[in-house]
Design brief:
This protein is 38% helix and 27% strand. It is built from twelve helices and 14 strands.
C-alpha cells in the first residue's frame, strides 16, 4: 500500500480506458496514459486524431463518455471545480478582451479564482515581469503583436499559480524569436515544479520541450516515449533522402533497406549513413541524395503516413 501511495503521488494526470463518443463518432478510443509531476508531456497527432478532445476532457470542458481520468488525484467528473482551480489554460486562439489593457486582462481574470485585488495586482505584475511585458502593462490588446498576445495569455494562465499548465498550440503563428522566448519560459516553469501538457504542430517544439509524448491517430495512442527514444526506435540516427523513381525503388527493394516512400522522395533509414550513401551511389540511378539527422517528424510520418497541419 505504501509503495502504491508513493507511486500515485508522483503522477499528475492518469487515464485508463478513457473514451469520448459523439453520436456514432468515436473521437477517443479507450486510451491509457500517465503524466508525471514536473514533466513536459506532449500530445501529437494529425487533425482528427483525438488529441484536442483529450485535452478538453482534462480541462473538464468536455465530459468523458467512459473510463477513468484523474488530475492531481482528483476525478474530473466528481471534482471538476477543484481540478479547474489547479489548472492554467493557454488556448490555441487569442481570446483576450480587446476592451482592456494588458494589466486589466490579468486582473479581471484573477476574479474567477477569488484572488484579492491586492494579491491579483502583485501576481499580475510578477508575471508581466517574468514574460518581459512590464512596459506594455497599460497597452490595449489590439496594439500588441501576435507574439506579445501569446505572452499575455501565458501570463494570464499563470495568475492562479497552477500546478498543471495546459498549452494548446502555444506558439502557432509566431516568428522564431517569439517562439524561442516562450520555449524558455516554459522550461523555466518546469524548473519551478509546474507540470506542462501541450499539443503542438511543430515537431522541433516537441523535440525541444517534451520529456515524453504520445502520438495519436484515429482516436488511439499509437506510440509513447521520449523524442530521442522514439527517433532511435523507429528511424535510427540518420535519414538518406533520394528521388522516388522506379529504378531507385527496385534497388532499395532488392537490397532490403528500410525506407518510407513519399510522392517525390524516398526516406531511407540508416545507422551508417556514409556506407548506405556509398552503396546507393554505386548501385542505384538517382540525380540527388541528401543525408541528414533523423527527426521526430520522420517518426510521425512513418507511423501515421500523414502530414501534421495547422
Amino acid at each position: 500500500m505504501k509503495k502504491s501511495l508513493i507511486s500515485n503521488m508522483s503522477i499528475a494526470i492518469s487515464a485508463e480506458d478513457l473514451t469520448k463518443q459523439f453520436d456514432d463518432f468515436l473521437a477517443v478510443d479507450h486510451i491509457n496514459f500517465q503524466i508525471n509531476r514536473n514533466e513536459i508531456f506532449g500530445f501529437l497527432g494529425p487533425n482528427g486524431a483525438g488529441k484536442t478532445t483529450t485535452m478538453k476532457m482534462i480541462q473538464c470542458v468536455s465530459p468523458k463518455t467512459s473510463g477513468s481520468l484523474m488530475v492531481n488525484g482528483l476525478d474530473v467528473e466528481k471534482d471538476s471545480r477543484s481540478v479547474k482551480n489547479i489548472l492554467g489554460i493557454v488556448p490555441q486562439e487569442n481570446n483576450l478582451d480587446p476592451d482592456f489593457s494588458v494589466l486589466k486582462n490579468l486582473l479581471v481574470y484573477a476574479r474567477y479564482y477569488n484572488i484579492s485585488k491586492e494579491e491579483a495586482e502583485r501576481r499580475a505584475l510578477e508575471q508581466l515581469d517574468f514574460l518581459q511585458l512590464n512596459e506594455k502593462k497599460d497597452t490595449m490588446i489590439d496594439k500588441l503583436s501576435g507574439g506579445m498576445k501569446r505572452r499575455v495569455i501565458l501570463a494570464r494562465a499563470l495568475i492562479n499559480k497552477p500546478r498543471i499548465l495546459i498549452l494548446d498550440e502555444p506558439t502557432t503563428g509566431l516568428d522564431p524569436q517569439a517562439r524561442h522566448m516562450i520555449w524558455d519560459k516554459i522550461l523555466s516553469l518546469k524548473k519551478e515544479g509546474v507540470t506542462v501538457v501541450l499539443t503542438t504542430h511543430y515537431m522541433e517544439e516537441a523535440s525541444q520541450l517534451c520529456d515524453r509524448l504520445v502520438i495519436m491517430d484515429l482516436g488511439k495512442i499509437i506510440e509513447e516515449g521520449s523524442p530521442q527514444k522514439l527517433i532511435q526506435k523507429h528511424v535510427g540516427s540518420h535519414v538518406v533522402e533520394v528521388d522516388n523513381t522506379p529504378a531507385v525503388m527496385k534497388c532499395l527493394t532488392e537490397d532490403g533497406d528500410k525506407y518510407e516512400e513519399f510522392a517525390n522522395r524516398v526516406h531511407v533509414f540508416a545507422a551508417e549513413p556514409e556506407e548506405l550513401t556509398s552503396k546507393l551511389m554505386k548501385r542505384c540511378d538517382f540525380d540527388k541524395v541528401t543525408v541528414r539527422q533523423a527527426s521526430l517528424e520522420d517518426v510521425f510520418l512513418k507511423l501515421t503516413k500523414k502530414v501534421l497541419r495547422d
